Amino acid sequence: MIKVEWFYWICGIFFLLIALQVFNDRTNPKRIGSAAFWGILGLSFGYGTLVVHKSAPSWLLGIAVIGLAVLAGFGFPGKGQEQTTTPAERVAFADRFGNKLFLPALVIPVVAALFGAWLAKVKLGDGKPLLETGFGTIIGLGVASLLALVVGLALLRPRSPAVPMHEGRRLLEHIGWAAILPQMLATLGLLFTASGVGKAVGRITDHLVPKGSLIAAVALYCIGMAIFTIVMGNAFAAFPVMTAAVGWPLLVQQFHGTPAVVFAVGMLAGFCGTLCTPMAANFNLVPAALLEMKDQYGPIKAQIPTAIPLLACNIVIMYIFAF
Questions:
Q1: Which terminus of the chain has fewer Cβ atoms in its 10 Å neighbourhood, N or C?
Q2: Worst-scoring range by mean pLDDT, 43-52, 144-153, 201-210, 297-306?
């Protein structure tokens, strides 16, 4: 059986190698703190396996997370000046390979889809599944990433097999601490759900929604999804909170809305919040960092004029088609 934790270990090894590279990079003025940041992150992947198997205390992992937050608060990780290629070399690569440069990237979704839809159902001779149950797509993503690396090396033939590691470090240094924000926010959503935040919000909404007012309930659900997404940076994290508070008890049970329409449009309303928040780092801060934009909040400023009318449209769509 192929286990998902194997790929977590690979991620941990990758971050440890990044930490070693950063530590040896004399052009990085923050190399010590930056190496500590990536090193702690890398060790957390391996240590997490011990916590899951209850062979190590979880509080140490909590301290590691706090340590990452403290380092990020003090401006780590920083950026070095080393480059794997010059701008002229990148232009030459683009002219030489053209659209073939997209092949490694296209390998990832194709292979991940095959694993999730097909290989996840394959059984071994002893009746056990080929892939760890429930993790077919994640395992597929790991295999696809490694395969994409091989395709990229075969296609581009870099002067050294270490070039992908150096380029990975360069991209991570541009992204900085925001690279791990999506994982942190996803965990925050689980904590909110487990602690009963949805039920608490539900009690508050009982006093906000006029009795029998469908439009008020729809607006509250959609706007609440957008606001919670702005705070948490992830519509998937906001969804269980607002659905437990408003979506299920009011829109489905009380007003007899069609669940598929209510929840699908509710997610779209949450995505309107994604367009407006720096907490959605992978959508808003990372592109600005990779493109080296002068205004790191430029994408958000450009998206807000679209997000607000789109949120209003989602409210109307839900009101008309879900009931």
A1: N
A2: 201-210
> With 80 as the cut, is the pLDDT of residue 18 above it?
yes
Asked if 262 and 251 count as a contact pair (C-beta separation under 8 A), the reply is yes
The model's pTM: 0.73
| pLDDT beyond 90 at 208 | no
Residue 24, judged by CB atoms within 10 A of its CB (0-12, 13-18, 19+), counts as exposed
> Which whole number is the average pLDDT over 217-226?
92
Q: Which residues of 74-107 are buried (b: 16+ CB within 10 A; e: fewer)?
A: eebbbbbeeebbeeeeeeeeeeeeeeeeeebeeb
- Quick check: 236 pLDDT over 70? yes
| Most confident of the following: 1-10, 50-59, 299-308 | 299-308
- pLDDT classification of 262: cutoffs 50, 70, 90: very high
